[in-house]
Amino acid sequence: RGRAELAAVDLGATSGRVMLARVGGGRLDIREVNRFGNGPLPIWDGRRTALHWDIPGLYAHIRDGLSAAAHQSTDLVGIGIDSWAVDYGLLRGGRLLGLPYHYRDERNHAGVSAVHQTIDPALLYARNGLQFLPFNTVYQLMAEKQAGTLGLADQALLIPDLIGYWLTGRTATERTNASTTGLLGADGNWDNELEQTLGLPTGLFPTLIEPGSTLGPVLPEIITQLGLPSSVTVTAVASHDTASAVVAVPMQPESAGYISCGTWGLVGVEVADRVVNPGARVANFTNEVGADGRIRFLRNVMGLWLLSESVRQWEREGVTVELPRVLDEAEQAHPPAELFDTDDPEFLTPGDMPARIAQWYTSRGLPAPAGRAAMVRAILESLAGAFARRIRDAASLSGTGVEVVHMVGGGSRNRLLCQLTADRLGMPVLAGPVEATAIGNILISARAKELIADDPESARALVAATFPPERFEPRAAAHTHHLKAFR
Ligand code: LFR
């Protein structure tokens, strides 16, 4: 096997980025080429302000990043693209019809009730195995149908597939991301019967392809415009960012849990088969498809969104917030009277987060955290509590003997969060890598290009060797038992 360079496009909630990795000879070196904002774009729609993807702006940054990557590299052979799940663009005759909606937009409520009036949520769960999240693609499409816009489209492409289409001219639906739409059946095919029941068009999403397959060569005009090597191809990676992140968790899945912690905390285990039973449904656990046909049995926990939205609010109020300092202060601050429910749907939309958290406490007759440091402490304690609770659920519902928990993504950089999570779990937390998503994206490309061995264990071993995790041991129970856990 030789060595070569691969680019990863990773569109995350606070930022998008293009990364460049050199892989081969048992090594993986990865660095950032460019980074750009990726916040929702609010646009007036005649009645209200709706949240959209700024997809043309992002595509311009992606093009710049790929061009810079080509100039910095001697041997760029592949490009992989990932983003958060569920969102899509509608097309007609190959043209994008409008700016894709951002899943945090409020339009989904009507879609949810329309779907649940037609099919009982328990039956829906038996078919698609997905946790209820109001923004699952199936609800978004239903909202789109009600708005009258769905009928205009002859095709839908999930966001990484849309970018891949613009780069190659080829359309496909990558399987890991397809599994978050709510429209994949237990047999792994599009559930046409469900689509018909809901009155949704069948065949809207193109053919499924597996992570690791080649989407196609980059279009000749783009090769010229960006100065890319003529042989470069786009690989369909595990294009759902969480699927990519879990590829890069350096774990033994039989005895480990994981928390992929960025904007969301994705908390669970990796298993061979779907776990679809009433207990899993009530605990709102999902079965998302990963690379190599593995299943991510996990639950969404609100994640660092609670913190980043709080920081954004304080900055709107004119305060300059230096995160490392606020985290130090939080460590010294009093823990809250009680953990709050991080997953209260009130916290889902953008806006004044500290006020909503304070309201959560006062509406229950509890004292709200006083001041920024106490608020940050309450957020981290409550997240750690939710993480621990969901790891326990994942272990017991799936029958996995979890002994250690890996924390990857931006949250793995937050030492207080890692320590509090270890305390509440009573188990070691292994932190890192921070850039798990981009690394997982690269690993699938590298396997496809035969730069590393084509199996998940070797890929994880390479991560463990390249980015040795930091270990947080649980402290004595005294550190946590003063707090009443939210149930
Ligand atoms: C994480 C993530 C989650 C998904 C949410 C919305 O970035 O992809 O896995 O539930 O975003 O798509």
TrEMBL record:
Belongs to the FGGY kinase family. This is Rhamnulokinase. The keyword Acetylation does not apply. The keyword Phosphoprotein does not apply. Keywords: ATP-binding, Carbohydrate metabolism, Kinase, Nucleotide-binding, Rhamnose metabolism, Transferase, Xylose metabolism. It comes from the Bacteria. InterPro entries: ATPase_NBD (IPR043129), FGGY_C (IPR018485), FGGY_Carb_Kinase (IPR050406), FGGY_N (IPR018484), Rhamnulokinase (IPR013449). It comes from Williamsia limnetica. One of its GO terms (molecular function) is rhamnulokinase activity. GO terms for biological process: D-xylose metabolic process; rhamnose catabolic process. Residues 8-247 form the Carbohydrate kinase FGGY N-terminal domain. Residues 257-448 form the Carbohydrate kinase FGGY C-terminal domain. PANTHER family: SUGAR KINASE (PTHR43095), XYLULOSE KINASE (PTHR43095:SF5).
